[in-house]
Design goal:
The chain is an alpha+beta fold. The chain has 10 helices and 4 strands, in the order H-H-H-H-H-H-H-H-E-H-E-E-E-H.
Length: about 230
Amino acid sequence: MKQIVICLFLIFSCQIVFAQDELTIDYDAIKLQVENENSNYFYPKLLGRFNSFDETLTLKEYALIYYGFSFQNDYLKQQPNEAIIDTLLKSENYEQLVTECAKILKKNPVSLKANNNMGFALFKLNKPESEWEKYQNRYRAIRKVIVLSGNGLSCETAFKVIYVSDEYNMIYSYFDIEKIYEQSLVNLCDKFEVEKSEYYQANEIFFDISRKLIRQSDFDKELKMLEEKIEYEN
C-alpha cells in the first residue's frame, strides 16, 4: 500500500512536459552571470530567492540556479550522503526524513532527491499543502530545466545534468523507463541503453555530465597538489 501511495504522489508531482523549445545551456555564459556581483543573477542573490521559495523565479533563473551550483565551492566538497533518505522512506520515519532532507538541502539546495522527499514527507505528515507543495514546485522546475536542456538522442543533444544521481531520477521517475540494459561513458556524456517507455521513445538516452567530470578532475588535481605540498614540507 505504501508503494502505491508513493507512486501516486510521484505521478502527481512530476507533471511531464513536452515542449517544442529547448533551453540553451552555455556553461561559460552561466559562469559569467552567476559570478558577477553586479548582476541580478549573482549566485547568492538567486540562491536567496530560491531558498525563500520566490514564486517569480523564471525558467532561466531556475537554470542558472541549477547549473550555476556547479560553479560553487560546495558543489563537490562535503556533499551529504543521500542514501539515508531511502532508509527512512522504507521505515516510514517521516519526521526524521524531514530533518535529514533539511540537512541535505542546506549543503545542496538543488538536490532533486531531497527536494522531492522533503515534499513527500511533509505530505505524509499531513502538513498544509502550502508547506509541501513549495518543495515539489522546486523539484518540478529543476527537472523541467533538465528536460529542456536537450533531447537525449545524442551526446551533442544530451540532457545536461550536474550529478549522476539526477540522470537516474530523470530515467526512472520522469521518463518512466523501467529497464537500463547498459551504461557507458562517451566523451563527456553518459550513454544508457534502455527499454522504451511511453514517455521516451528511443533505446538510447544521453546525459551530458561534463560539469561533474571537469570539476572532479580539477578537484583531484588540487588535492594532489596539496598532498605533494604537505609531503614536501614534512
